[in-house]
Amino acid sequence: IGGCVARMGLKKKQPKTFKVKVITMDAEMEFSCEMKWKGKDLFDLVCRALGLRETWFFGLQYTIKGMYTWLKMDKKVLDQEIPKEDPVSFRFLAKFYPEKVEEELLQEITQHLFFLQVKKQILDEEIYCSPEATVLLASYAVQAKYGDYDPNFHEPGFLAQEELLPKRVSISHYQMTADMWEEKISAWYAEHRGIARDEAKMNYLKIAQDLEMYGVNYFPIQNKSDTDLLLGVDAKGIHVYSINNRFSPNKSFEWSGIRNISYSEKELTIKPLDKKAEVFKFFSSQLKVNKLILQLCIGNHDLFMRRRKVDSIEIQQMKAQAREEKARKKVGRGKQAASGTEAVEKLVAGGTGS
């Protein structure tokens, strides 16, 4: 028995947990995960920590061998090809985009995360935006950060440290100095007086959602003739672009017009609902890219169908809560404005009396 105990004592204890670092658009969080956890267990934990209920837009992204991919929900975290790090690092990002931001993004946290992600994509030039539109968007970003414009506080130079414009715009266009750009942004910013910070973020997103590259995931593909093309997947469908034009697709397949998407090894096939229409086949050199395309197609199609059904009880409740919250804030802002006016009137009255 003694020998048996000794041998057991020598056996190394296996760790029961592993550490994970999750980076959101404005924070870093660390979690301790159980070895047996699936992707969904970790994802749900992150959503709870953020107080996020609109979970269907988001995913946990990571990079392996220079390519980004998303953590699978139904598979054990440790059984997936994740980076060999301690802690393992994931980015919590929007994976799917709404068709109409104002109707679909109900929670403030959801709006906030989308605002930060889209703003970064515009600044990093992943979404192209004209110089004029970037100035208007920048002014809403300033309103979202600072609240109402106050000429006594927001003096020239107060935006000097802010990253508000894509480098291409700030450097190359119009031969304008940083001060001139700031003046342009401040002029728009002053116009936004009375717009609440959360409204400013929503106004930003409403402009951004009309940009051609908004919400599109692009992938390099080849057609049957070996021509290099780009495939774009978004909330509305699948689009095929020339390699040097990400704005206007040569061909589009709306989700409502697609019968089926399938892949075998490197070949993907899109079958239209109209059986007389041409079946579109294309190739991607990497199996992983094909799997990612298919994953994004399935997720976007599911959301497309979901939007066209009657709202679930959960969504109905969230919409009602969002309306109540909006009304409450409006009343609060009205009272604030009224008390501000009252204070000014008292000051004026006091001044005339003296």
Automatic annotation (TrEMBL):
This is FERM domain-containing protein. The gene is LOC112110146. It is found in: Cell membrane; Cell projection. One of its GO terms (cellular component) is cell projection. Keywords: Cell membrane, Cell projection, Membrane. It comes from Terrapene triunguis (Three-toed box turtle). Residues 323-354 are annotated as: Disordered. Residues 18-308 form the FERM domain. SUPFAM superfamilies: PH domain-like, Second domain of FERM, Ubiquitin-like. It holds the Pfam family FERM_N. PANTHER family: MERLIN/MOESIN/EZRIN/RADIXIN (PTHR23281). It is a peripheral membrane protein. The keyword Cell membrane applies. GO terms for molecular function: actin binding. InterPro entries: Band_41_domain, ERM, ERM_FERM_C, Ez/rad/moesin-like, FERM/acyl-CoA-bd_prot_sf, FERM_2, FERM_central, FERM_CS.
